[in-house]
Amino acid sequence: MNSLVLAVIGIAMMLAGYFVYSKYLARRVYKLEAQFHTPAHELTDGVDYVPTNKFVLWGHHFTSVAGAAPIVGPAVAVIWGWLPAFLWVTLGTVFFAGMHDMGALWASVRNRGQSMGMLSGRYIGARGRNLFLVVIFLLLLMVVAAFATVITNLLIATPTSVIPVWGAIAVAAVIGQMIYRWKMNLLLTTVIGVVALYSLILVGDRFPVVLPDSVLGMTPATFWIVALFLYAGVASLLPVWVLLQPRDYINGVQLFIGLGILYLSVLLASPTVVAPAINHAVPEGTPSIVPLLFVTIACGAISGFHGMVSSGTSAKQLDKETDGRFVGYFGAVGEGLLALGAIIAATAGYQTLADWEAVYSAFNEGGVSAFVEGGGAIVNAGLGIPASLSATILATMAVLFAATTMDTAVRLQRFVVQEAGEILGIRIRNVVATVVVLVCGVALTFSAGADGSGGLLIWPLFGTTNQLLASLTLAIIAVILLRKKRNPILVLIPLVFVLVMSIYALIVQIGTFYADGNWLLLALDLVILVASLWVALESGIAMQAARKGAFDPETDDPVLAGSGRRDTTGSD
């Protein structure tokens, strides 16, 4: 199979999804209104609620939701063959992820920028909300701890990426001033930022940074992890326009250019996909493709983390409700294109099938290293860029994706801690909530030693937890649609599919964890399973009530029987 054929078919499907299906969703399902007064205007505070240009917000949203997961998942899942991964990424992006992300953004915007955790209280009930927040907190903890470890490993393995990765922070700070303080033209600002970032990549390739064995009494791994948590903590506290938003925007543009370089290389080199379409000779110990494919590839097909970003930060910055189609749906398309690129790099970046099989000798092999190695070979063959520089470009891409997700996750988890405080009647200030998040993240990351390997301890549960959260987010969207007297079938089909596959995967993992004697993961698996089933049951009851009850289609509020008045007391 020629990789160019895969690229053309995949890109065409995703663009058709954006230009055709997303328009249908915007007009007939979510009914987006340009005149709607969004939370960014209603609650403007210059910190979290900031009306934002849709292109800038798309950059923040795209890079925040992407991270390393749409690289890792597809690059691992091709062990079952390229065809199942290709179909799940393309169809999932078009019919699952785009609808889910745009829907979560719309639901939050229609509810004063509240997160999915808080929305679950209104639309599902207090019990569902409390359990929902538990699942969200565990998911964000996995993201923060694991990405700190992943980024650290990449910085150590690819020292040429150190200067561009950390230099991007300074570039972003300047970009924020150029956009909001100096009111400079966005196109000119973008060009300056991209040139600065790629200049840093050239400098980094020339001057790799390898830390000594001891830095301030810490190993290189410990030092990078501490530095990353300190940065993420500061970034989560600063006004969103100062660092987080411009960093995500300029990174998004730079990363899209990086994807363009990869796809242009595929066009010019047309490398052959050496991996089998369906691998009938998977290595011993590889789990069954069903249901594991659908949780191994989470980001890149559908991801609950996207709902957290949509409702946690993006909804607070949306200038016009109609911008939600570009920010939400096209943000998912951007991630789908990254996942498609990871599939091509991990299957067509090797000379022979034997070379590919040497890398994929066991389940969970490949991942980012296969993307960087295979993608670097394709870029080198297609554009003639030296192998070292090609690897630096792709490694920097992967690290910047992971870093932007990590700092957004810390901010989101701070919101979750504060929302939990509200439920308990405790007002938790930003700094205190951030400290709680950092302490939890650092404790988990270093729980297995100074190398930060503890950050990956609970990562095996990420895919299933993430997909369960996506199905529960879809449940909230379905309840809202039912209350507004709209047909929720386009939401219910993905909801049922993802929920069934996720619960199936959790049950399979219970057996694996028990057989391995991994009691921590077994206990967490059971907690997540019980909480998710409970929320799913509460969601079913809420959907039934919404279908049968009388609700104001404009506000979603229950109408008191026989009075014509709305009941605005909420679900609590």
Largest sheet: none
Helix content: over 70%
**Terminal CA distance:** 56 Å
Mean pLDDT: 88
Strand segment tally:
0
Class by SSE composition: mainly alpha
- Morphology: globular
Would you identify the regions where 5 or more consecutive residues have pLDDT less than 50? 567-572
Number of helices: 21
- Provide the β-strand percentage band: under 5%
Radius of gyration from CA coordinates: 23 Å
- Series of H and E elements: HHHHHHHHHHHHHHHHHHHHH
Molecular structure report:
This protein is mainly α and 572 residues long. The protein has helices spanning 3-29, 39-42, 54-66, 69-77, 82-109, 116-123, 126-157, 162-181, 186-206, 220-237, 244-269, 289-296, 304-312, 324-348, 353-359, 367-383, 387-423, 430-445, 462-483, 489-516, 519-548. The protein contains 21 helices and no strands. Helix 3 crosses helix 11 (244-269), helix 6 (116-123) packs across helix 19 (462-483) and helix 20 runs antiparallel to helix 21. The longest helix has 37 residues, at 387-423. Residues 2-348, 362-505 form the CstA N-terminal domain. The chain crosses the membrane at residues 6-26, 62-80, 86-109, 130-156, 162-179, 186-203, 223-244, 256-278, 290-309, 329-350, 389-410, 431-450, 456-482, 489-507, 519-537.
Short description, anyone?
With 572 residues, this protein is mainly α.
Write the layout of secondary structure elements.
Elements (H helix, E strand, L loop, with lengths): L2 H27 L9 H4 L11 H13 L2 H9 L4 H28 L6 H8 L2 H32 L4 H20 L4 H21 L13 H18 L6 H26 L19 H8 L7 H9 L11 H25 L4 H7 L7 H17 L3 H37 L6 H16 L16 H22 L5 H28 L2 H30 L24
